[in-house]
Amino acid sequence: MGVVGDRIGPVRFRDRFLQGESVEGSVRSPILSSWQRSRLLGLSPDQSELPFEQDFDLEVPLLRAAEPVLDRLQAIFAGSQTNICLADGHGMVLARRFGEKSMVRRLAPIQILPGFVFAERFAGTNGIGLSLAERRLCQVYGAEHFAERSQASACTAIPLRDQLSGHIQGVLCLGYPYTEADPALVPVVRKAAEAIERRLMDQSSAREHGLLQAYLDAAHLARSNEHGLDGHPVAMADFLRSELEQSDQATLKEKATELMSGDRRAAAEVPLSRGRWVTLVSRPVTSAAGVEGVVVEALLPEDSERHAPAPTHPHTPATAPPAFRPHVAPDPDPDPATVRARGAPPADDPDRDGRVRGLVLVGEPEVGKYAVAARRRLELLAEASNRIGTTLDVSRTAWELAETAVPRLADFVTIDLPGGVLLGEESPHPTSEMLRTVVHGIREDCPFYPVGAQVTLRPTTPHMRCIATGQPVLEQDLKAAFGWIAQDPQHAELLLAHNIHSLITVPLLARGAVLGVASFYRSQDPTPYGDDDRSLAQELAARAALCIDNARRYTREHTLALSLQRSLLPRGLPEQSAVEVAHRYLPAESGVGGDWFDVIPLSGARVALLVGDVVGHGLHAAATMGRLRTAARNFAELELAPDELLTHLDNLMVRLDREEGGDGPDPGSTGIVGATCLYAIYDPTSQQCTMARAGHPPPALVRPDGAVSLLDLPAGPPLGLGGLPFESVEIRLPEHSQLVLYTDGLIEDRHRDVDVALDALHRALAHPDRGPEETCQAVLDAVAPEHPDDDIALLVARTNAVPADRIAGWELDADPARVSEVRAASVSQLNRWGLEESAFATELLLSELVTNAVRYGTAPIRVRLIHDRNLICEVHDASSSAPRMRQSASTDEGGRGLFLVAQLAQSWGTRYTPGGKVIWAECSLAAA
């Protein structure tokens, strides 16, 4: 990024990012992504503690392979402020070396001692963690580090891979002051990493190398003796590229493996198709280290005789059919003078007469060259099943295909996908909108089109040909692939200059849709690709294409579900004064679920709080959540008690389940499984809270003195079972208590016990001085799983109370003469509250409501005025019959009272109580 003042890195951009501002386009993408991941992980820039492993194995192969290289690096950087670090594949430091020994006295223990874990999820953006996350060489400068402690440093880190599997075994990292940053460090780090990887490879293949060297030494000694061998050796690959059919090749490899497993000197005639034959000879071989193995060679006639029928041996009847006939000869006593030559063919070998000799297998009895090759192909396919499709991310799945193929199948892999596929859609014209999605190889200096570049394909290119035919295209010699060269001659010239010489292009097809094209390039191995390579590439691509299509479909569904989910959740909080509310919603990493919350203002200054969770994930769960939330709001408007509201929701769930086939025999039915819910009504005039739950986690209550408890509410059955009762509980909440409602995704995690999560919740809530917003964030930081498998909905409400001097009430008999007294008393009370401008409308409104109660209701009759955000008028009587507003005819003498109430009030309605009903009307003070 260059120098900013006297520091390296985007100092001001980091500060802006930490303040919540957008810095996209101003910071390198890997750094910004790492910052974002660090923030999502809940890491703090001033965090100084890291996990420390005190007891770890010092004899791991990685450390043994790296120690000489680390010593060499220490010598190279002697006298400098370089901190050389080796970490394992999990980010734990295994060893350190220092350019200047005095650094040990100046640096903090975290920068000196092995055992600290620098994985990104613990340490934020740093060289080791970023290299593991990005799976490539990374450089981090100054303020690009997430932690404050590393702001003055720079580092270059590179992952160390197993050359056979491609797995990252560890990380080599060089740290240094930002003033010593030098581009020349990159090739030094690369060469050091290559040396460590070669030493790792040497450790794993030393036994096989020893056996092969023993065979070569023996063959060389035999040829240098006076009894030189007739014929000439030929590579087995050349023989297999002759006119042998696939079945013949499989037979030859199978019989050679059988001979090798016998662990003795033997010869066998192997019949092939169309009367042809090949003789296999196995001989014991011992390496210089004493490892015993077997060499299997093929003896075959010269070209003019290769297609001749099998000869008739003197000891074999002419009529006998060709068969697998081993001829076992006892090993002669070993001669001490020729121990090193063990494995060479004897001078009187009957197979010396004009034969071509080809090495088939060499290794320990159960291992051989072609057996190993076949096994590794199978292992690669098996590994592909495990490595490809580990996530439901389109780009990541494509990267997994490339990482699986390099270096065992290809030296470089590029994958091009249409832009629509990356967004989760099917592309109607895939060849016209190809984007380079993956470039991966054994080196990073090969001039392929970069990731993100638009790729325009001509009809003559192998890429277009494979898309048009639906079959892989093999170009053995790219120098002669004129269609490929014509695509971009200058670019082709650059690739050829990097020794890229062979290509396989494979279409990514799944469920009839073209998802892109994968290209496999070979450069290091001079042998061009063959048919077996093409078949293997096609199999890998087919598996990857299915995973990419699954990821594409998931991306589309996830995007739709998330959009639907967010559109169905409250976009803002309603205006009310009963509680101060804060909320959070976090979708699950695996998919959007059906969690929801709601805050519903009710009559009488009351408020309803609701949290629920629909079982399942995806569009169906989100849509079901929307249905339940809408139904719950409608039932709440009917002023139902919590247990009655849950009963109605339960009935609705049963009906929806039945309508959607939940009781049907179809195994593919999307019938609703169930849901949980918690519903609470808080009345600020009495500070009473009535709650009921349907299989939902109990709410937490934080009292003003800091005491935290989980409220003991009857659990109730989940919604959707039907026929089971719910029970409400009434609790008095002291003013400024905090009621915390949440879904099970907050406390349930397969990596953590629920009791541990509840303890963390108690600790996070034990701060009554926090506001609801601060409490929400503290709970998520302390309790939410690092990678949530389920949605999390969190609702925190701090209760308020209406002061007693803002509530006025009167009780009267069912006597029309008392109406005037109520009018006078209400006007007097409004004057005391300073609401003289509302007196006329309130007097008229109360007159109508009280008159209706006296005329049609039952004593006792109570009148209440509440001075809240609005002026609330309530008239209670013991009757359960509710008034209805009707259209009066012009000749009617009455029937206009409720119409007048509706015109004077902002809203009005009826709610039922255990002792009767309440007719209420709410008048806006602003309008007054």
Topology summary:
Layout: E1 3-4, E2 7-8, H1 11-18, H2 29-40, H3 61-76, E3 83-88, E4 93-98, H4 103-106, H5 120-123, H6 127-134, E5 138-141, E6 153-161, E7 168-177, H7 185-224, E8 232-233, H8 236-240, H9 246-261, E9 266-271, E10 277-286, E11 292-300, E12 325-328, E13 356-363, H10 369-387, H11 394-405, E14 412-418, H12 419-422, E15 434-441, E16 454-455, H13 462-469, E17 473-475, H14 482-487, H15 489-497, E18 502-510, E19 513-522, H16 531-568, E20 579-586, E21 593-601, E22 607-617, H17 619-637, H18 642-659, E23 675-683, E24 688-694, E25 700-702, E26 708-710, E27 729-732, E28 738-742, H19 754-765, H20 772-783, E29 792-799, E30 807-812, H21 818-832, H22 839-856, E31 861-867, E32 871-877, H23 897-904, E33 907-913, E34 916-923
Parallel strand pairs: 8-13
Antiparallel strand pairs: 1-2, 3-4, 3-7, 5-6, 6-7, 9-10, 9-12, 10-11, 11-13, 14-15, 14-19, 15-16, 17-18, 18-19, 20-29, 21-22, 22-23, 23-24, 24-27, 25-26, 25-28, 28-29, 30-31, 31-32, 32-34, 33-34
